[in-house]
Amino acid sequence: MSSRRTIAHPVTVSGTALHAGVPVTMTLSPAKGGSGIAFRRADLGVDIPARYDRVSETRLGTVIGEGLAKVGVVEHLMAAAAGAEIDDLLVTLDGPEPPILDGDALSYLTLLESAGVAEQDQPRTAIRVLKPVTVESGGAKASLLPDSSLSYSYELSFPVIGEQYYAFAFSRAGFKAEIAPARTFGFLRELETLNKMDMAKGASLANTLALDETGVINRERQRFADEFVRHKILDAIGDMALAGAPLIARFAGIKSGHATNNALLRALFADPANYERTEL
After folding, report:
1. How far apart are CA 268 and CA 215, in angstroms?
2. Longest dimension (CA), the chain
3. Domains assigned to the chain
4. Would you name the residues annotated as active-site residues?
5. What is the pLDDT along the chain (280 residues), one digit of tens a residue?
6. Torsions phi, psi for 265 (to 5 deg)
7. CB within 8 Å of 138: residues ≥ 6 apart
8. 3-state secondary structure at position 113
């Protein structure tokens, strides 16, 4: 039997919110067994469970909400928690998003590792996918397929970037080496429009791979030739972590994003015949 895991002691970090562009301080704290992961807006006095059914927006990031309180861009931190196999965690923020830090999941993973791990006195459970579940929207497609272990694959096609494919069989060591370091990316031509929409105000050449018609502008920040598709898998891992428990399934994405990922979890849980809960 595997035991649920939380962190051993609190850790705090400060930085800039990716979209809001404001300073944010975040504290990660141990949480009691079985409580799952929750985001606390300390400035609003509201706790928001990190669950797929709390997702209220998926434009350029996954946003969860409770009433009028929201937390944006949760996917990178959720990916890090999933990669570290942390089940119970309290994330306290004094602003609208976790700080973007390096634009990857590795910076969050390093923070979690510095906090240490504490095993809980409850068994770790998983959600085993029993039937294929697929959602499609436009040219985007995402599936959860029955399998004996957790894995991810993704096909990407973007102007300038071209076509990229990556397959990843989940492991803690593999996540840290192959997926967690992959930074978020964006196109410079879209930045002015996004800023007018009060988005991407905290994006910089230090935390985002910036693209123009010639390719990556800040190439010195690029860690992998196929960093873009790896980051898409990072996003998918973070979004699938909103299932509330680890999945036993094969995720396959084609040009999919946060909206498709959330729709996929909603489709999975819409029919109890699609899955079963099992102890690890």
Report:
1. 37
2. 54
3. 3-124 (3.30.230.20), 126-279 (3.30.1700.10)
4. 258
5. 799 999 999 999 999 999 999 999 999 999 999 999 999 999 999 999 999 999 999 988 999 999 999 999 999 999 999 999 999 999 999 999 999 999 999 999 999 999 999 999 999 999 999 999 999 999 999 999 999 999 999 999 998 999 999 999 999 999 999 999 999 999 888 877 777 777 789 999 899 999 999 999 999 999 999 999 999 999 999 999 999 999 999 999 999 999 999 999 999 999 999 999 999 9
6. -65, -40
7. none
8. helix
